[in-house]
Write a structure and sequence with these properties.
The protein is mainly alpha-helical and 186 residues long. It contains 7 helices and no strands.
């Protein structure tokens, strides 16, 4: 697994409509970012073009539109709306095409795969990464992941989740510190 500096993609607590410290908050975003990076790099290494800036921002902001931690089928659409309205907050900046793609990925990360009009590599990365972090709710099923690489990462998902929970302080920093020790964050 390769390590990348993911620090520029940190969402701010104020970006969240719901609890940034809850199960869909900063720690979740940080873990999804770790896994999205790994899945995206694996797809790229296999010759699949992947816009990693879109993947990284999608991991960071896919749940900012949540109203609660329960079933919230419209949170992807609200997250996409947030992205379109607050583009200037996303640094590194996005091109117009990347912004459209990011909004698309945020929107379609919620519905079932077959509902998406186009299943892009960036959507694959986010859905698999989000799926890997289902370990936090005891619902990770590696057979439901879309890529072999994501399935191979399933044991690491449990390691990162459990290790980051025991770190004190800021949940983003806790995940970052663990991921750095494990070689997944530079």
């Amino acid at each position: 697994m390769s390590a990348y500096d993911l620090d520029p993609f940190r969402p701010q607590p104020a970006w969240y409509r719901h609890n940034p410290y809850g199960i869909h908050g900063l720690a979740h975003a940080a873990r999804v970012l770790v896994w999205a990076e790994q899945v995206g790099q694996a797809l790229s290494s296999a010759g699949q073009p992947v816009d990693m800036t879109v993947v990284r921002w999608a991991a960071a902001v896919h749940d900012v539109g949540r109203l609660d931690d329960g079933r919230d089928p419209l949170h992807g659409q609200r997250s996409a709306e947030w992205v379109r309205e607050r583009r200037e907050l996303l640094v590194p900046a996005l091109t117009d095409g990347q912004l459209l793609q990011l909004a698309y990925v945020c929107t379609w990360h919620v519905p079932p795969d077959h509902a998406a009009p186009h299943f892009s590599p960036e959507l694959t990365c986010l859905k698999d990464a989000d799926g890997l972090d289902r370990v936090r709710i005891h619902d990770l099923d590696p057979d439901k992941l879309r890529t072999r690489h994501a399935r191979d990462l399933a044991p690491g998902a449990a390691v990162l989740y459990h290790a980051s929970r025991v770190e004190p302080g800021d949940p983003w920093e806790a995940v970052r510190a663990c991921a750095r020790r494990l070689g997944w964050w530079r």
